[in-house]
Design a protein that fits this description.
Blueprint (H helix, E strand, L loop, with lengths): L11 E12 L2 E13 L4 E6 L5 H8 L9 E8 L2 E2 L5 H7 L4 E4 L3 H4 L6 H12 L4 H14 L5 H5 L8 H12 L6 E5 L7 H18 L2 E6 L2 H7 L2 E6 L2 E7 H6 L4 H8 L56 E2 L5 H13 L1
Parallel strand pairs: 3-8, 3-9, 6-7, 7-8
Antiparallel strand pairs: 1-2, 1-4, 4-5, 9-10, 10-11
Helix pairs in contact: 4-5, 4-7, 5-7
Length: 340
């Protein structure tokens, strides 16, 4: 009889990641119990409003939080190796070579006084036994791979001499210079026009296929999620409030915050609404979180049950939400929102 092959272990395992910062009123919990698995070649979308904990959680994963008063707890395992508490020198060997990050603002992520080619070659030299000439040659190859015209000339330019889209491509080339197993892309299409956004998304599609890297895509744009992600996690006030496959979450969102974000997207068909709906209010300050569900003050479906903080349910299901609403209540709320 054929023997079933056991599933491959996750490339990246995050369990109970918590990040807290010191504040005048006490510690502020910026990330509260983030857990997920990431398989090789998978794209995980990390969605949420500004301040929800997306970028902070990934900075903690990479050991980039250098505030001595900050507290990072939990477990982050890359191919079974624990990264939390790793010595700084060992962590520097992981960053760039095994996990790389495309930062949100390419102008501030690149050093203004060095050329693009120099900065890419410098990262290659830091992680590989290779000569300077070979590193420069690979930098030019990478710039060509990300679609920059005349890559040899672009390699000799400084960041301010490139457009925003070209800087973003250069940053992606740098992140991929050592062929990392995991690529974290923090808002890779923010502040770019729609044409360049489409080019960057197509580039990420090709890089996933060509390099086989797993990708964590941080964004607030659910359109980008629909284009790229296999699975999605929605964060709010430092916690995951919904998770599921991209298809399940976009077709049948269960958390009111997710439904609110989807509702604010202009429809592609049908009559044009006179006004796009928006989520009322503002995200809460992390040092003044309401008791129970943090989203309750902004939720049109909140009731007495929300006084207790909800957990992700069903806990073991692929699609889960931290919300007390039953399926019939969610359907009624959806119909009510559509009738407005």
């Amino acid at each position: 009889m054929p023997v079933d092959t056991p599933p491959a272990p996750p490339l990246l395992q995050v369990r109970g990641l918590r990040v807290a910062f010191a504040a005048p009123a006490g510690r502020v919990q910026a990330v509260d119990g983030l857990s997920f698995d990431l398989a090789a070649g998978e794209v995980l979308g990390l969605v949420g409003e500004s301040g929800s904990g997306k970028s902070v959680s990934m900075a903690a994963l990479l050991g980039l939080i250098d505030d001595p008063r900050a507290r990072v707890e939990g477990s982050v395992r890359l191919r079974g190796r624990e990264l939390i508490g790793l010595a700084p020198e060992a962590m520097r060997q992981v960053r760039g070579r095994e996990i790389a990050m495309v930062f949100q603002n390419p102008m501030t992520a690149l050093t203004p006084v060095y050329t693009i080619g120099h900065q890419i070659a410098e990262q290659i030299l830091a992680h590989e036994r290779i000569g300077a000439a070979a590193a420069r040659a690979r930098a030019i190859e990478l710039l060509a791979a990300v679609g920059l015209p005349d890559p040899a000339a672009q390699a000799r330019r400084h960041p301010h001499q490139l457009s925003g889209g070209m800087r973003q491509r250069a940053l992606i080339a740098m992140a991929l210079s050592c062929r990392p197993a995991v690529l974290i892309a923090d808002e890779p299409t923010t502040a770019l026009d729609v044409t360049v956004q489409a080019q960057i998304l197509e580039l990420l599609h090709r890089l996933r296929a060509d390099f086989g890297s797993a990708v964590v895509l941080i964004t607030h744009d659910l359109g980008v999620v629909a284009e790229l992600a296999d699975r999605v996690m929605v964060m709010y006030a430092g916690r995951v409030v919904e998770r599921g496959t991209a298809v399940d979450l976009l077709d049948a969102a269960r958390h009111p915050n997710t439904r609110g974000q989807l509702g604010s997207i202009p429809p592609l068909a049908g009559p044009r609404p006179p006004r796009l709906p928006s989520i009322a209010g503002m995200p809460p300050a992390l040092d003044r979180l309401p008791p129970g569900c943090a989203f309750a003050p902004r939720c049109g479906c909140a009731d007495a049950r929300c006084a207790t903080r909800p957990e992700l349910l069903p806990a073991a299901a692929p699609h889960a939400a931290a919300c007390v609403l039953r399926a019939d209540e969610r359907a009624a709320a959806r119909l009510q929102a559509m009738a407005r």
